[in-house]
């Protein structure tokens, strides 16, 4: 069994992020084609242009009568224009044959094709029909109430740019031009496993009173899924260097990145960094980050794939995953970096911090006078997952500070709006 030892040095958070992105940030998953209805939320892998005009012909925007605008110029309630009714144009049907002649009109419904010769549509409420004739009591300008061919989309127009997150309105536009499939960026596959003899899976019968349900793995899996990735579940591995390294190799063969949870600190059973070194020439690029909670964070390479070694405590793992892992996963998936809403608040009490360490402080917010008051939930306790569920937000205290004073103004990143 290894003996305990301290961290030789702690890498600043920004340096850790830069190292990860510099090494793996340029890789982009290849494309795959999915049915249009499955494309929402995915990232487009190519630029899509329209092969048709929308609308495909001049069509009426209202119910009324298609006319030659010059026939209505002198019309009024006291002197309506009298037009001969030539026929009817309905949506999905052809208008009457032949162009509209002077003094003629065609009854037309919303979405129907405007007949040749007509250049505008009078709304039904401005007309009165008397047998085969129509009285128009209001003049209309040329083009009134007509959606012209290609007004919305013209042939060759880009309707979806490459690298865009596909939203419901993109689906509608793609459908309108006849696309029934879309090329999207493949979701990165992230292999995640936990280590520790004491862990049991969710829903498993505890072996003894000392067993702990593995809550961190499903939490990180959900965070990866929300970042646009697929998750390959590597399960729980006991405190065996051979088993840990074997699982790393297996996941690296079938995933784009590997995330291990637990076994990264300085205790005798913290075997993950040594296991990574035993199977990789590049091994561990850094181990120990100037972040609290989450200091025992490590990063390495296995079979050319990034290996993120996170501490086992839930809050430490969550903070490290969000700060260092998610920037890479979001770049890969193309969904972009998430930005939380930030509000101003005053600290309810002084919070001491260690210079050189970036602290992520969980706080609750309450109304106080004309502003908000931020009360720290806990400064220690990185294993207390409830400190996140009870928190309203996070206060990030930079490396240059020795704490924040009572009453000082801070930025609070809201966990929920």
Describe this structure in words.
With 417 residues, this protein is of the alpha/beta class. It has four domains: 13-29 and 188-333, MoaB/Mog-like domain (Molybdenum Cofactor Biosythetic Enzyme, Chain A, 3-Layer(aba) Sandwich); 32-54 and 152-185, Molybdopterin biosynthesis moea protein, domain 2, CATH 3.90.105.10; 59-147, Molybdopterin biosynthesis moea protein, domain 3 (Molybdopterin biosynthesis moeA protein, domain 3); 342-414, Beta-clip. It is built from seven helices and 28 strands. The chain has helices at 13-24, 168-176, 216-226, 241-254, 272-279, 314-333, 386-389, and strands at 31-35, 48-49, 59-60, 64-67, 81-89, 104-108, 120-123, 127-130, 133-136, 146-147, 158-160, 181-185, 189-195, 199-200, 212-213, 230-237, 257-261, 284-287, 291-292, 298-302, 305-310, 342-347, 351-352, 358-368, 371-378, 393-397, 403-404, 409-414. The chain has a six-stranded mixed β-sheet with strand order 7-4-6-5-9-8, with no helix packed on it. A six-stranded mixed β-sheet has the order 16-13-17-21-20-18, sandwiched between helices. A hairpin with a 2-residue loop joins strand 20 and strand 21 (305-310). Helix 4 (241-254) packs across helix 5 (272-279). It is elongated and about 100 Å long. The mean pLDDT is 92.
Overall SS class: alpha/beta
Radius of gyration (CA) equals: 33 Å
Main beta sheet strand tally, sense and closure: 6 strands, mixed
Identify the CATH class of the largest domain: Alpha Beta
In the sheet with the most strands, the strands line up as 7-4-6-5-9-8
